Structure formats: C-alpha cells, structure tokens
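Example 3.2
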Amino acid sequence: MTTTAEQLQSAIEQRAARVGVVGLGYVGLPLVRASIAAGYATLGFDVDPRKIERLAKGESYIKHVPSEWIASCLKEGRFEPTADMSRLGEADVILICVPTPLTESRDPDLSYVEATARMAAATLRPGQLVVLESTTYPGTTRNVLLPILAEKGLQPGGDFFLAYSPEREDPGNPQHSANSIPKVVGGLDETSLKLADAFYSRVVVQTVPVSSVEVAEACKILENTYRAVNIALVNELKVLLSRMHIDVWEVIDAAKTKPFGFQAFYPGPGLGGHCIPIDPFYLTWVARKHGLSTRFIELAGEVNANMPHYVIGRVFEALNAAGKPLKGSKVCLLGAAYKKDVDDPRESPTFRLMELLQEHGAEVSYNDPHIPRLPAMRSFDVPPLESRPLTPEFLAEQDCILICTDHSAYDWDYVVQHARCVIDTRNAARDVTQGREKVWKA
C-alpha cells in the first residue's frame, strides 16, 4: 500500500504537485517564478488585495520579475494569484514567505507567521508539505509552527510534513536569481527532509540538506549577522578614519587586494533591507531566553543604528561651512531604495535620515529612478513625497544633495556640476574630478 509520503514524493518527481506560495513580495514572487520554471503549477497567496489585483492583470510590482512573464503564465494556466486563503488546501507544497519584523521593543514579531500557520491549519490535509522560508530564530518551526498545524490531530511526519528552508535573495544582482542560489533545507523529521529536498532539488541549482530545522534556521541568522557585524566594523572605522583625515574607501580597496583572509564590506548611511537590520536582534532575543547576552552582536546593531546620526552631523558641518543653518535648508536625498539598482525600500536608512532632517527643520525632497512615490512604512514616519526630476535648476536650488543610494542611473558628474553641496555616503562620486570641493564624504 502506497503511503502518503510516497504519493507526495511521486507527485513532486513527476511535477504533478501543485505549489502554493504565501506572501508575494520580494521573496515570494521570485520563488513563484522559480517553481513555475521547474514545471510546477503554482498558486500565489497574499492578503494584500492590491497585489492580487495587479498580478491578475499581468502586472508586476517588482522590478526583476517582468510583467510579460506574469501575463504569459496566467494565460497558460501555470500561475494563479489569489487572496482566498481557504484554497491553501489545493496546494501539495506550501511555501511560507511572510514578513518577520521586530516589535517596537526589538522583540521578534511572528504574527504574520502565526496567522499564516492558522490559515494553513484550517485546510491542512494528509499529503501536504509545509515549508517556512521566513527568516526567524532557531526553534520557530518546531515550537511555533508545528503546534498550530497539529491542532486538528494530523500527525507530522506521517500525515503532513514540515520543513524550514531560509530564503536567499540578492535583489538587483542579475548573477543570483532564486533558482541559481544553493538552498539550505532542514526537516522536522527524516521524511519531511526527504520530501523538501526532493522539491527544492528540482527548483534550485543545489540543495544543502542539514540535520534539523534548527540548524537551517540558525544558518540564516548566521549569514545575516555576519554581514551586520562586518558592516558595523567598517562603519565604525569610517568615523575614526574620517577624523584622522584618511579615506576609508581607499583603505578597503587596498585591503581587498589581499587574496586570502579578507572580504570587503563597505560603510554606508545605515543598514537597510528586511534582513540585515532585523535578523541579528532575533538572535539576541533568543539568547536572552537562554540566559545569555550577545554583546558583540548588540554592539554592532548599536553602531549601525547610529550611522544616520553621523551622516546628519556631516550635513550640519557642510552647511555650516557655507554659512547656512540646517533649519530651513533644502535637502534632496538621492535614493530611497535600501540598496543600489533595486526598487525595494524596506528598512531603508533614507527614511531615518528624512525623519532626522525634518526634526531639525530641513525642507526635504528626494529622487529615486526606481521608486516614483514614497510608500507607507511600518517603521518610519514617511512624508507623502514624489520623486523630483534632477534638472539643473532643481539641483542648483538645493542647499545640499545627500547621496543615500548609489544607483547606476545617476550621472555623478552632472549632479556635482549643478549642486551647491553634495554629501556622499556611498563614495559614489569617487571618479568626479570637476567640483570636488563641493563633495563631503559621510
């Protein structure tokens, strides 16, 4: 007699399994694309009706997922977006890609994960594989997700299967798409691991099976904490070396010529994106639960969180040198996205810089070729602004141009030529030769 696991295994191998992706943001929508490319008909779930409406029209809201591709998949019946969570029971493989933000007290906010788990539990049936992809602390899959899914009496590892596979996305990097990045996979039990590995091995270039869901969860936290700590190091060095009149970017360029033992990280105006500014605090929270402190990680978080204040200090210095107070000055911020050449504004330090500038009475505007209008954000008080065209007249009217994100679309020679003063947090104007006296590094 064929077991439930064997039936699901066969459906996965034959591409007959139907995939459901919950959360159609910067992680979920590329994952939908990778699943469809692997031959799986895919349902896309999201509680935001605006996203579903746009997708149903064949429109993309993420730069690196083309509208033409969405329209083609809809027409061919390979993709169906829906806000109807009662249809989760139709999916054989459910991939959860919902946000895991922090509360105001910097504790993990698992409300989105828990809500999704309850919706999945309401329609859970034998033969389904549920995989959490949202970044979280070790123990979430076993201690938070599992009890909710098992409430109705279905047995994990026999009736349904549970795994964790952390998302790995690098938006704006064409060399790394969802299906070209190796995938770490951890299962609640041996059968769950086998099924999750069977699915992902058909979707991505390589799978990396590990011994437990906790190892997979800790892996993702390590990856992002590693980046946060090293960025904090170069941010702290930037402040020190600036006071010593040494260019930190030149120092990093020199150091990275060493072919071993060094990896280049670069300073900036603060941390952005949904992972690096948030995930280390998941680790510090779980450490406190175990009676330990993570002083090194917390210090890195403190350094990175203070960088917007350092940048504003440099704005003060530059304006003072021109005999201007910050209050009443016109400041245009270039780049609202958290990183170069993407349309993703999540946790962008630009928003914190805007808050600080407005607190000091500055008249704030912005430009971003990828973000025509500032969206509402959970963590920031965002003004209702639209991207301003960078005409020579507009640039000349500004008391200060603050470079927050070094998009490739910007012509830095043009910006510096027409601006009165430029604060460069990204070393974006490094090759500008004319008007260098206007450029202040921050």
